[in-house]
Amino acid sequence: MPRLSRAARIARWTLPLTFALFIAMEALSVYVFILNRRVVNELVNRSWRVPTIIVSAAGNREREIARVYGADWRVSPPVVIGELPPQVPNAFLAAEDVRFRSHPGIDPIGIARAVFKNLRAGEIAQGGSTIPQQIIKQHFLTQERTWRRKVVEAVLAVVLDFRLSKDDLLELYLNDVYLGHYQGVPILGIDEAARLYFDKSPRALRPDEAAVLAAMIHAPNRDNPEKRPDIVRARRNAILGVMHAHRWLDDAAYHDAIARDVDVTRGALPDTPFPYYLHALRNDAIHEVGTRRVAAGGLTIVCEMDPAAQRAAEIVARRAPASLQSRFWWIRNQSRVDPLQVAILSIDPRTGGIRTLVGGTEFHQSPFDRTTAMRRQPGSAFKPFAYLAAIASKRETTASLLLDAPVSIELDDNHTWQPQNYDEQFRGRVTLRESFERSLNVPTVRMTQRIGVSRVKSTAEHFGFDHLAAIPALPLGVTEVSMRELTSAYTAFPNLGMRADPYLLREVRARNGKSLYRHEAKQKRVAGADATYVMHTLLRGVVRRGTATRLKNYGLGYVAGKTGTTNDYRDAWFVGYTADMVTSVWVGFDRGAPLRLSSSEAAIPVWGAYMRQIPHTPANPAPPQGVTFRDIDPETGMLWQEGCPGPIREVFLDGTQPTHHCPAGIFGRIVRRVLFDEDHFDEPPAITFEKFRRWTNDVERNRREVESAWEKLKRIFD
């Protein structure tokens, strides 16, 4: 076969190479076109000077609670070039882009110098980026040093320079430039940096101070006046020298600035009000109207926050850990490595509006929102759904007798589970009311075995819980739930069976007043009004006689709710409600270290301290149709008659009330002595280290057994 000539070989490859080059150029053009649209939408059309107004609509009365700026909702108003002394922007131009006023978005002289140095180095060692290029890189591109990224960056920088004035570009840059971190929060813009390092506004900065901030740009967390003052001084002086050479500083001002020390007068960043709530609200706003609209500013965001209640919750959550640390040495020791956290969530059960959201003890230390993102075992706070399932089945009543005695339940592969009460005691027969109010585990497990765990699972799923396993320990709250799930489920109790969907965001309005999004409150029937009312009376009893009687010390003896201490004393919960507020409190460690405290010791003081400060309606729901009241002997659960203890006024579903009277006289006393234990118990406030060590071994063994059963169930269903 004859060899092709050189011209033929070139011709043979010309068409494929031309086609490949065409495809590459088309792909690059499409990529640049898409980024160009983003530049127009997110930078050119964005008004960083116009605030987003946060409005509270709690109580159906709108009132402004905050003004925030920019995509990340900062509280500091943006700086305006016309209000700054010339030395402030000039210091940054001297440091970053000295020909900014004359170039078209890219600096040919700077590019030539960078190309020469990069060729000598054999890599991209110097970028030669202008301020428009830095804006593009910060907002749209990665930090990788490649020729492709630099080409795209240069094209878009020219577009941006064409579309915005030089003052607008410089103003945008000065408001967004990154100047380090402080207490885990990024320092963005010269306003925040000036207030943090010099405790003054940018309008009051001297030339040397402006030059110090400009000197920090390339490595602000490393090269700042506090860590490396000598390096900062050298860079500052170099920047001042450029300013002097361009006649941006006269001789007197230059020599005065050079002579000054690099001093720092530490200030602080302005506090963002209600940080946990606003962080969650911003996420919801982005979800509903998009990142671009939120970043553009000029919106009115209407939320369900009660500002007074939110402020009270933040103060209580911040103070609670110190109180517990001062009283319990193991809390104090653990907090040194894993700070104790407190979360509070309040929902209006009538609408679902979230009035209060505090996701942790201190936002600046940990912005993690534990009300939504955290999943933990609720412990006994889950029991209301098991007891409601029993009452709704009409197989149990508030006066039913349950056996509090040892029980063994077969799990899998000849393993057994033996649930225990918190005090590891058994007290014979107890009424269902006493079992619930005193949060007894063993009678609860026996009751759910009788009605069927699947019935408990189905009831809880109606209330909004998911991913539940029909295991014997389910009624004791061994499944993991979110705080928002648990709190919203409790809205059905003051509403007599109607669960309200929780929400933060009521409405988003554009600058012209047009509504971009409006939430419609939703309620769903999850249980019958009659059975829910009976459950409500049990929840009232928890506060009147049971594990939450401590709330009476806060003047809150009229509320209803349920404590939740997990079986290993790791988490403490209390979920309580009035007619217009359902509030949950969680206390614990993020890493799962044990509190070794009951909910009455850890969670109820937080709940009480918060709720007694905020207005609420203490009214109870009226009895619905389908319930009957009777006077009952509290020990036997039978109808009361003279000679019996009590009476107490008890409520039943129609047709489930007892029909026999309690034994009275001598015979009655004999029966009570034989069948009923007179001793009662209260949930231990704290457990000893020895008991905890023993419990840890037992709990770990039980956990493995439960997990084994759960894995078998998953294999069956899969």
Reconstruct the topology from this structure.
Elements: H1 6-44, E1 52-56, E2 63-68, H2 87-96, H3 108-121, H4 131-140, H5 147-163, H6 166-176, E3 178-182, E4 185-188, H7 189-198, H8 207-215, H9 229-245, H10 251-259, H11 275-289, H12 291-296, E5 300-303, H13 307-327, H14 329-335, E6 340-347, E7 354-358, E8 375-376, H15 383-392, E9 401-404, E10 409-410, E11 416-417, E12 428-431, H16 432-437, H17 441-451, H18 453-462, E13 481-482, H19 483-490, E14 498-500, E15 505-509, E16 515-518, E17 523-525, H20 529-544, E18 560-565, E19 572-577, E20 582-589, H21 599-602, H22 604-611, E21 627-632, E22 648-653, H23 665-675, H24 689-717
Parallel strand pairs: 1-5
Antiparallel strand pairs: 1-2, 3-4, 5-15, 6-7, 6-20, 8-13, 9-12, 10-11, 14-17, 15-16, 18-19, 19-20, 21-22
Helix pairs in contact: 1-5, 2-8, 2-9, 4-5, 4-6, 8-9, 9-10, 13-14, 13-22, 15-17, 15-18, 15-20, 17-18
Count of helical segments?
24
Which descriptor suits the 3D outline?
A: elongated
State the strand order across the main sheet.
2-1-5-15-16
Mind describing the biggest β-sheet? 5 strands, mixed
Average of the residue pLDDT scores = 86
Summarize the structure.
This protein is α+β, with helices and mostly antiparallel strands and 718 residues long. The strands form eight sheets. Strands 2-1-5-15-16 form a five-stranded mixed β-sheet, covered by helices on one side. A five-stranded antiparallel β-sheet has the order 7-6-20-19-18, with helices on both faces. The protein has a two-stranded antiparallel ribbon with strand order 3-4.
